[in-house]
Design brief:
The protein is of the alpha/beta class and 266 residues long. The protein has a single domain, classed as Rossmann fold, CATH 3.40.50. It has nine helices and seven strands. A seven-stranded parallel beta sheet has the order 3-2-1-4-5-6-7, with helices on both faces. The mean pLDDT is 90.
Length: 266
């Protein structure tokens, strides 16, 4: 079991990449704290894990609440007695889907603050409260779920890009601060993942978008949440014991391509 005997917290793990990560860590022996807003979806993920023979509990929490993030970490200690793995996956995606992230000059301070608080402060809070327990456990691994949008511009998402860019800088800083203390911190940069959210799934599967799918990245397809979960599992396990402060792109090769125009030749 690659993370056998470990205790993991996965924020935003009631669906998509977070749920796949919680299930994958549990498959490999971790006891998992599942978190999110929906008690119904959280209970379903916990039931899946328990049905497969794993251990998990659910904590309902808001990313924008420091007390909720602190309570998530404390639940790991109360339920399982330790904490070894933290996966900062949660992000207020509903804010983006509701059109609250707009071009810079159209963005309201209130909407920007909501995105930053849920996407950036939550990572700070979870990490802040997790590290002392990891030190007590003799070390640990933190994996932050980022995006290629932090490295490449994407129209109309300044708050999203800035929040994830800050997360990447935070990943490096935590790696520097905790490396000699036995804690590793790495990031996974996502791109083109069909994470099961309704609008994205319909866009990914629509027959008229077949050509767009083929040209979206080097592999010519969308990624699956479990493929991300496999990368997270590796970084959280001792197999990645000499990797810290790194950002691994799980994007089908999107960042490797320069989409040059194809000019006609007469």
């Amino acid at each position: 079991m690659r993370v056998g005997g470990k205790v993991a917290v996965v924020t935003g793990s009631t669906s998509g990449v977070g749920a796949a990560t919680a299930r994958r860590l549990a498959e490999e022996g971790a006891r998992v704290v599942v978190t999110g807003r929906s008690a119904e979806r959280g209970a379903a993920v916990v039931a899946d894990i328990q049905k497969a023979g794993g251990q998990a509990v659910f904590v309902a929490a808001e990313l924008s609440s420091e007390e909720d993030m602190k309570r998530i970490i404390q639940t790991a200690i109360d339920e399982f007695g330790a904490l070894h793995i933290l996966v900062n996956n949660g992000f207020p995606m509903d804010v983006l889907q509701n059109g609250k992230d707009r071009r810079v000059w159209e963005q309201s301070t209130e909407d920007y603050d909501e995105i930053v608080k849920g996407g950036q402060y939550s990572v700070f809070w979870a990490t802040k409260y997790a590290i002392p327990h990891m030190l007590e456990a003799g070390g640990g691994a933190i994996v932050n779920i980022s995006t290629i949008a932090a490295s490449q511009g994407m129209e109309g998402t300044p708050a999203y890009a800035m929040t994830k860019g800050a997360m990447d800088a935070f990943t490096r800083q935590v790696a520097v601060d905790t490396g000699k203390l036995g804690i590793r911190c790495n990031g996974v940069m996502l791109g083109g993942i069909n994470n099961g959210q309704a609008r994205q799934r319909l866009r990914a599967e629509h027959p008229d978008n077949a050509e767009a799918r083929r040209n979206m990245n080097t592999l010519g397809r969308h990624g699956l949440p479990r493929e991300v979960a496999n990368v997270v599992l590796f970084l959280a396990s001792d197999e990645a014991s000499f990797i810290t402060g790194a950002h691994i792109a799980c994007d089908g090769g999107h960042l490797t391509r320069f989409a040059a125009p194809k000019y006609a030749v007469s």
